[in-house]
Specification:
Blueprint lengths: L5 H11 L1 E5 L4 E7 L2 E4 L6 E4 L2 E5 L11 E4 L2 E10 L4 E8 L1
Antiparallel strand pairs: 1-2, 1-6, 2-5, 3-4, 5-8, 6-7, 7-8
């Protein structure tokens, strides 16, 4: 169960989000994270992350593996969608 009102999510995404166009043409506000690579300071292991979108779960109910979204004119495929059960979902993406 979330410890906040879903209206709080609207404020959070309004301040920190990018506009993402869904495959049906509608738009949502979501945070887009680029792929990153860093070194674990304890193990020395190189960690690589994939690009992802963090969005309100209610905004991405129609997106599944194979769906597409457009961000800044670039089309991306949805690889995976996971909800954290607090009203937020993280979608792994790859360039089409």
């Amino acid at each position: 169960m979330a410890f906040y009102d879903f209206d709080d999510l609207d404020v959070f995404f309004a301040d920190f989000a990018d506009t993402v166009t869904l495959s049906g043409g509608s738009t949502i506000e979501a945070m887009v994270d680029d792929a990153q690579e860093y070194v674990d300071s304890i193990t020395g292991e190189v960690i690589t992350t994939e690009p992802s979108i963090t969005a309100k779960t209610r905004d991405v109910t129609t997106l599944f593996r194979g769906s597409t979204v457009t961000i800044n004119g670039v089309t991306w495929n949805i690889l995976d969608k996971r909800s954290d059960r607090t009203g937020i979902s993280i979608l792994r993406i790859s360039k089409q």
